[in-house]
């Protein structure tokens, strides 16, 4: 069951170590109060979450720019919730979201345990598509930055996962090789298939325990990584 020959472990950040959904919900709760948005938060989030995923997919595929993602995901969510918000307020909410997101830094259960365990035998790294201006804050404020030897961000490379260039860039930064590395992430497309497409091993982190038909290594909690590493 163990993966042999691995020296370097690459993690995604959001939805894998850093609990994006929980921190995002707390952020929206705060900025709704600051901006006097009279809308039930759970109702808004029920629309926002799938819309956000849709726009992140477009962003990964280089079909929209960052500014369009940040504006349209909010605008579409408010429209879906039948709550009219003027453009200038959406822009302010977008800025407030980036400003306050890293004031909440919940990580997934057993994050520190598994990182302490892995660092004894592996070099640890991050590969993330998140915005550069906040990803390092997330790592620092959640107190996990010291575990990682390198952090590769899509804005540094100019492409996003699953583009092979970002994986090759990260491997070069880490001074390691494909057959000595494994990628762990929550996105089947960006993390798992992105890695396996260049011949790199991958582990799918999926808290929903999705039933996959293909032979992909999969865990639904971080402690279960011990059976592979």
UniProtKB/TrEMBL annotation:
It comes from the Bacteria. InterPro entries: HAD-like_sf (IPR036412), HAD-SF_hydro_IA (IPR006439), HAD-SF_hydro_IA_YjjG/PynA (IPR011951), HAD_2 (IPR041492), HAD_sf (IPR023214), PGP-like_dom2 (IPR023198), Pyrimidine_5'-ntase_YjjG (IPR052550). Coiled coil: none annotated. PANTHER family: PTHR47478, PYRIMIDINE 5'-NUCLEOTIDASE YJJG. This is YjjG family noncanonical pyrimidine nucleotidase. It comes from Algibacter aquimarinus. The lineage of its organism: Bacteria, Pseudomonadati, Bacteroidota, Flavobacteriia, Flavobacteriales.
């Amino acid at each position: 069951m163990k993966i042999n020959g691995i020296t370097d472990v690459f993690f995604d950040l959001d939805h894998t170590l850093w609990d994006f959904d929980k921190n995002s919900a707390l952020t929206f709760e705060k900025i709704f109060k600051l901006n006097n948005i009279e809308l039930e938060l759970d109702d808004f989030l029920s629309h926002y979450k799938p819309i956000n995923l849709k726009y992140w997919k477009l962003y990964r595929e280089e079909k929209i720019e960052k500014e369009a993602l940040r504006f349209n995901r909010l605008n579409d969510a408010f429209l879906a919730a039948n709550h009219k918000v003027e453009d200038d307020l959406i822009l302010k909410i977008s800025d407030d979201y980036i400003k306050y997101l890293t004031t909440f830094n919940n990580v997934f259960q057993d994050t520190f345990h598994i990182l302490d365990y892995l660092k004894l035998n592996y070099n640890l790294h991050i590969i993330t598509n998140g915005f550069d201006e906040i990803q390092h804050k997330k790592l620092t404020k959640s107190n996990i930055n010291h575990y990682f030897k390198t952090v590769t961000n899509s804005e540094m490379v100019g492409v996003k996962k699953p583009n092979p260039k970002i994986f090759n860039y990260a491997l070069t930064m880490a001074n390691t090789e494909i057959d000595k590395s494994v990628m762990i992430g929550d996105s089947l497309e960006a993390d798992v298939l992105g890695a396996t497409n260049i011949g790199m091993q991958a582990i799918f982190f999926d808290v929903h325990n999705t039933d996959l038909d293909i032979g992909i290594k999969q865990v639904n909690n971080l402690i279960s990584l011990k059976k592979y590493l």
